[in-house]
Automatic annotation (TrEMBL):
Assigned keywords, A-Z: Hydrolase
GO MF, one annotated term: hydrolase activity
SUPFAM superfamilies: Six-hairpin glycosidases
Protein's UniProt keywords contain Transport: no
Name of the molecule in the record: Uu.00g009630.m01.CDS01
Protein species of origin: Anthostomella pinea
Entry annotated with the keyword Hydrolase: yes
Domain of life per record: Eukaryota
Pfam family, one: Glyco_hydro_88
InterPro entries (alphabetical): 6-hairpin_glycosidase_sf (IPR008928), 6hp_glycosidase-like_sf (IPR012341), Glyco_hydro_88 (IPR010905), PolySaccharide_Degr_Enz (IPR052043)
Gene3D superfamilies, per database record: 1.50.10.10
GO terms classed as biological process: carbohydrate metabolic process
């Protein structure tokens, strides 16, 4: 393969030149595809039932990142095949709504989009049943006293995290020709209500950012006495919410416009605050956004990739415009470059690893600053590496 070094240099943040020590051969890789093939070599994002309750999210998030990759690189047939394998593995775990609604956090719904959009050849009865059960599980999901969907088993608690899986799936299900029903308008209203309710409880007007979640009963040790809000802005949970907004916007019809307008208002309000919160020195975002530079805090690699993706996709689809769009592109492109330089590890066997991703942070804790910065860092968490695939795809699009 002939390598055009000028072009490689021009898009150095998106392309890597990797010389194999064994063969001396030089190959160019795009980081998105390289990281995706590395995720596949690690067999990540395939449910086995033996993992933690976050298995369903690992599976659904991998499917979403890979779906975006195949849309951008249609000849990546191995990645398409992997999506199908991931969906086929997940479906049996998600086909009993009564059980799933409690056994998995709201994150389970992230598997629904690929279930609905697989090529018809793969739209098996099992896939259709799983999509239907996931939808039914929203209706069975517990609600708090304000009507907000619980994130998981914790009574009355809602997390930003769950919105990433809920809103795009519910929107697709309610608008898709095959699955929409006479109740779809009420369901879209409910979807908007959920995005709204959690915003109202978690928005901090002095930072413009959203905290991790809230307890509608106001009884948790960490709950704000008026709003029930938890105390801190956790990067990854805000990353899920930012991605929820931009991915939902992409799926919402333009008419009636109230849905799109409402979600757009949220996106355009939130993203400038996220740009403001970037660490000027590195270009990444802190694990705890509201305590920049405090001892123990660090630049976290999953939340940072999620913000870079949401910003660049928002610009690409015209949801951010003018000076805000140029700022967003600059900040996000720089962030992806920092992530590549800092957290992407080239293994001697030719795979890429991804470092610096915090493990799960739960509100079933003190939710204190010390708790969040004390959670372990994971090597090759797919919640980080799949977010990096999404961010890299957007950067690669800029130079395509
Ligand atoms: C896929 O397409 C790209 C160009 O878009 C090309 O460089 C690459 O070689 C193709 N890969 C395969 C496996 O055909
Ligand atoms: C769903 O799971 C529950 C709990 O395990 C079980 O009681 C019920 O029979 C299952 N329903 C179906 C339709 O399989
Ligand atoms: C999806 O469909 C294609 C084409 O029919 C087939 O080759 C592939 O094996 C199917 N994948 C799964 C997981 O069933
Ligand atoms: C229609 O959707 C609304 C909003 O989610 C829900 O409250 C209601 O139960 C649904 N009705 C039916 C018949 O499913
Ligand atoms: C909002 O954020 C600021 C800055 O982090 C903090 O001082 C303030 O206590 C927060 N407000 C509430 C209601 O939590
Ligand atoms: C873009 O960033 C510059 C420098 O930080 C700032 O002065 C300007 O207000 C920003 N523009 C918008 C539209 O946010
Ligand atoms: C490549 O090397 C890394 C680091 O040693 C290892 O974790 C991974 O499993 C290896 N992958 C394969 C496909 O051998
Ligand atoms: C991964 O990051 C940790 C610090 O968070 C560091 O100690 C470790 O050396 C890194 N691993 C690699 C392979 O870079
Ligand atoms: C919540 O945390 C407590 C204390 O760590 C633990 O015993 C309990 O099992 C947790 N609850 C759930 C549902 O994970």
């Amino acid at each position: 393969m002939r390598v055009n070094f000028n072009r490689v240099a021009a898009v150095a943040t998106a392309l890597a030149v990797w010389a194999s020590a064994a063969t001396g051969a030089v190959a160019t890789h795009t980081y998105s595809k390289w990281m995706a093939s590395s995720i596949m070599s690690r067999h990540q994002g395939i449910m086995t039932g033996a993992g933690s309750s976050s298995e369903a999210l690992q599976s659904g998030f991998t499917q979403k990142a890979f779906t975006a990759l195949v849309a951008q690189y249609p000849n990546a047939t191995d990645v398409q095949q992997y999506i199908e394998t991931s969906v086929a593995a997940a479906a049996p775990f998600l086909s009993n709504a009564t059980y799933d609604a409690m056994a998995y956090p709201m994150d389970r719904l992230s598997n629904g989009n690929a279930l609905l959009t697989l090529p018809s050849a793969n739209s098996t009865a099992s896939n259709r049943a799983a999509a239907k059960a996931l939808h039914q599980s929203i209706m069975l999901n517990h609600r708090n006293i304000d009507g907000g969907l619980w994130y998981f088993t914790y009574p009355q608690w809602s997390y930003l995290d769950g919105m990433y899986s809920l809103a795009p799936f519910w929107t697709l299900y309610s608008t898709n020709a095959v699955s929409r029903s006479s109740n779809s308008t009420a369901e879209l209203d409910d979807m908007l209500f959920q995005l709204d309710l959690i915003w109202q409880h978690t928005y901090n007007s002095s930072t413009g950012l959203l905290v991790h979640g809230y307890d509608a009963s106001l009884t948790a040790v960490w709950a704000n006495p008026i709003t029930g809000a938890s105390p801190h802005v956790w990067g990854r949970s805000l990353g899920w919410y930012a991605m929820a907004l931009v991915d939902t916007l992409e799926l919402l019809p333009s008419s009636p416009c109230k849905y799109k307008q409402d979600v757009l208002n949220k996106f355009q309000t939130l993203m400038p605050a996220i740009i403001d919160a970037v660490d000027q020195q590195t270009g990444g975002w802190w694990q705890i956004l509201d305590e920049p530079g405090k001892e123990g805090n660090y630049i976290e690699s999953s939340g940072s990739a999620m913000f870079a993706y949401a910003l660049l996709k928002g610009v690409r689809l015209g949801y951010l415009a003018g000076g805000l769009a140029s700022n967003a592109s600059e900040v996000a492109t720089r962030a992806q470059g920092y992530l590549t330089d800092t957290f992407v590890v080239k293994e001697t066997n030719g795979t890429l690893s991804y470092n610096g991703t915090v493990s799960v942070c739960s509100l079933n804790s003190t939710a204190s600053y010390e708790y969040y910065v004390g959670q372990p860092i994971q090597y090759n968490s797919v919640l980080g590496s799949a977010a990096y695939v999404l961010a890299s795809l957007e950067v690669e699009k800029l130079s395509a």
